[in-house]
Amino acid sequence: MAEDKDKVICSDGKNVVPEVWKVLDKIKEFSELVRSGSWVGATGKALKDVVAVGIGGSFLGPLFVHTALQTGKVRILANVDPIDVARNIVGLDPETTLVVVVSKTFTTAETMLNARTLREWITAALGPKAVAKHMVAVSTNLMLVEKFGIDPNNAFAFWDWVGGRYSVCSAVGVLPLSLQYGFSVVEKFLKGASIIDQHFYSTPFEKNIPVLLGLLSVWNVSFLGYPARAILPYTQALEKFAPHIQQASMPLYFPSRLRVSMESNGKGVSIDGVRLPFEAGEIDFGEPGTNGQHSFYQLIHQGRVIPCDFIGVVKSQQPVYLKGEVVSNHDELMSNFFAQPDALAYGKTAEQLLSENVSQNLIPHKTFTGNRPSISLLLPSLNAYNVGQLLAIYEHRVAVEGFIWGINSFDQWGVELGKVYV
Ligand SMILES: O=P(O)(O)OC[C@H]1O[C@H](O)[C@H](O)[C@@H](O)[C@@H]1O
């Protein structure tokens, strides 16, 4: 949902751009009504808090983008554990709260139970009619939205051709984020994603960022035999990026938090149903730097080989330069960003350690083999536009890997089986 109005993009022979923009315009209008205080709740008060409920793709994408841009508070909850609901409504008044239920199918057990819990919270305080003013939905299943009691006029559609884990650029992300940041900011996010779509579509392979990254991943996984990948953003604002990308690749045996990459490419058979003679998908994990350096980097430096994605930002969202310090706080962070790939690549030899008078018994322990692969991505800043670009780069990279492995990156039967057992 990131294309200009005059673009033509067909799904099943039909240009879908006009209906996409119909929804975007509706989101724009609705979010402006709520943000300006013209949309009032059941008791006539303006709504000032938003709670979004969803899980998987209907949760992680909006959470990642919100965390990256964070200048206010949208509460986004997922877990069926009642603690999640309780913590997210602490301090909120139903009279001034809008609940956005986000579910592609509108059948997902966790989301529906959380939605019923919040419906009860609203109706207990304001009566059953309050649902019309305090609950809206994002879904492909408008029949079930209505059955749940949400006015279909307050539903924001998307379509089956939007995969759940790729849905943050649809109403799934656009509605909650527009309510918080305003539609014009979210439009910049969509623009960033769209620019990368065009780059991916038209740039020759040797200069095509998602293609090159996808090839490197396949090389690392399938040829060098390194099944994991660490996603290491050197900015706290991207703390939810790795959890979101994990979704896009997950092998079956990973918990549902780890899923764009792991849900998409964690497959055992080819797109034609033939068992793969190799293992597809990669195990993604990550933490913002420098936190990760003090937990799992030891393994990356001297234990298993784990290809790393380092992501840095030139201009911090929070410039701080303390009097008396040699460098700004952000430069301190970035020194780490530049140092880690070098340490992985060059390592440290026994000869170097000897020349530094390291005692003989410590030399094996302090030797680093080096030659450990990493890539570094440097963003000019972390605004809505760049966040959209980053997201799209990773989404297309997942697709590139899936194409090369010959798998279907857009189904998730493993997750479906788990749902049946529940
Ligand atoms: O949006 P929903 O229909 O509620 O589905 C939520 C999630 O359900 C499953 O976990 C799927 O594997 C995810 O891809 C999806 O995002």
How is this structure best described in words?
The chain has 422 residues and is an alpha/beta fold. It has 17 helices and eleven strands. It has helices at residues 17-36, 60-69, 82-89, 109-126, 131-134, 142-148, 171-181, 183-202, 209-223, 241-247, 260-265, 297-302, 329-346, 350-355, 363-366, 384-405, 413-421, and strands at residues 10-11, 14-15, 49-53, 74-77, 97-102, 135-139, 155-157, 228-233, 283-285, 308-315, 374-381. A five-stranded parallel beta sheet has the order 4-3-5-6-7, with helices on both faces. The chain has a four-stranded parallel beta sheet with strand order 9-8-10-11, sandwiched between helices. Helix 2 links the parallel strand 3 (49-53) and strand 4 (74-77). Helix 2 (60-69) packs antiparallel against helix 10. It is globular. Residues 249-259 have low confidence and may be disordered. Residues 55-58, 103-105, 108, 111, 164-165, 263, 412, 415 line the site of 6-O-phosphono-alpha-D-glucopyranose (G6P).
Largest sheet: 5 strands, parallel
H/E topology pattern = EEHEHEHEHHEHEHHHEHHEHEHHHEHH
The separation of the N and C termini measures 33 Å
Q: Label the overall shape.
A: globular
Total helix count?
A: 17
Unreliable stretches, pLDDT < 50, 5 or more residues? 249-259
What portion of residues belong to β-strands? 5-15%
Instruction: Describe the strand arrangement of the main beta sheet, using strand numbers.
Output: 4-3-5-6-7
Class by alpha and beta content:
alpha/beta
Ligand inventory reads: 6-O-phosphono-alpha-D-glucopyranose
Query: Averaging pLDDT over every residue, what do you get?
Result: 93
Radius of gyration: 23 Å
Number of strands: 11
> Helical proportion?
40-55%
